[in-house]
Amino acid sequence: MNKKVWGIIIVIIALAIIVGIVYIIFFYRFSSLPEPAVESPAAQEQAKTTEPAVESPAKPAAAVQPTVPFKKAEVDSDDLVRMASSFAERFGSFSNQSDYGNIRDLQIFMTDTMKVWAENYIADARAKKTQTAIYYGIVTKAISGETKQFD
Q1: Cα separation of 135 and 4, whole Å?
Q2: How does DSSP assign 17-37, residue by residue?
């Protein structure tokens, strides 16, 4: 065979592979859930004539997912550096129209002492009643992080 025929064969095979990949990505069902059984109309008519049924709204059968217990993740020093950098960036960023959301959102990461300080700080800042008509914002970026001691 000459080069032209081989080229055509390679192009056809490549197109077939691409069509197969597109089919798998868009149309193939990866999770094979059993489809609900559909009763024939004759069986439905027999059920209606033999028993009076109480009409109730149809509730779709929900798949019950078993709960997986939460596994405590291991944290190393690099993870702590990233968490501290993220905390510092979010804590230092500010907008006069966010109603101190940056501090309130971080309370899950704060110690009890820092939570008390944050609540007092927010209460004091709200008491000052600053003007929010003109937007004012500060963005903080953590440039570097370092772990001094890790137990």
Answers
A1: 67
A2: HHHHHHHHHHT--SS-PPPPP
Q: What is the pLDDT of residue 46?
A: 54
| For the chain, counts of helices (H) and of strands (E) | 5, 2
Q: Which residues contact 83 (CB under 8 A, 6 or more apart)?
A: 109
The whole-angstrom separation of Cα 143 and Cα 7 is 54
Q: Rounded distance, CA 85 to CA 123, Å? A: 26
DSSP class of residue 94? E
Q: How far apart are CA 139 and CA 94, in angstroms?
A: 7
Low-confidence ranges of the chain (pLDDT < 70): 1, 30-62
* Domain chopping of the chain, boundaries: 77-138
